[in-house]
Amino acid sequence: MIRIGYIVGSLSSTSINRQVAQGLTSIAPEGVELVELDYSTLPQYSADHDADYPQAALAWKQSIEAVDGVIILTPEYLRSIPGSLKNALDWASRPWGTNSFDGKPVAIAGASVGSIGTAAAQQHLRSILAHLNAPTLGQPEVFLKFSPEDFGPDGAIVGDALRGILDGFLKAAHAHIAQHPGAATAA
Ligand SMILES: Cc1cc2nc3c(=O)[nH]c(=O)nc-3n(C[C@H](O)[C@H](O)[C@H](O)COP(=O)(O)O)c2cc1C
Asked: Is residue 147 part of a domain?
């Protein structure tokens, strides 16, 4: 069994990236468990916290360390990732010397209402993950232009093209994470 943590890079209650995450969960094959890594209660990061990390941040770091790999589904805000997601990654990287992403295999995807489908945001995210020393899946790149008709009322994927894209992405993410065993720490 491989445990993959997914991060939805949006705090919106109507997030389209959350819909994509739910779509991925619905097609996860036998032997792959997808669990959400929730960062919604984190305060704003400041180095002032390093000497006495808040409980929410310790729990966030532990949740990353407890999974075999991570999928990040990011929206694009102003041609980059949302500040809330960057804040969560900042918390995970500190205190200095305790980077929770160190060696953790990651795969990224994203959905936007815009036609470039988060391509600019994902390039920024790749740069951040390189600095975090998180080996990041190169292909397939998944830049989704969101179409509501791809999802049924219960959130299931009804669009065959989208299903094929997400299925290929999940298979590649699974293989990428399986190639980096030992990145997980004890739950
Ligand atoms: C502050 C802000 C900035 C945005 N900037 C971009 C952008 O640069 N490129 C883009 O394609 N969409 C942009 N959008 C539109 C988002 O693609 C859209 O809000 C999308 O639904 C966000 O994903 P979410 O529903 O998962 O939060 C922006 C939206 C907001 C609120």
From this structure: yes
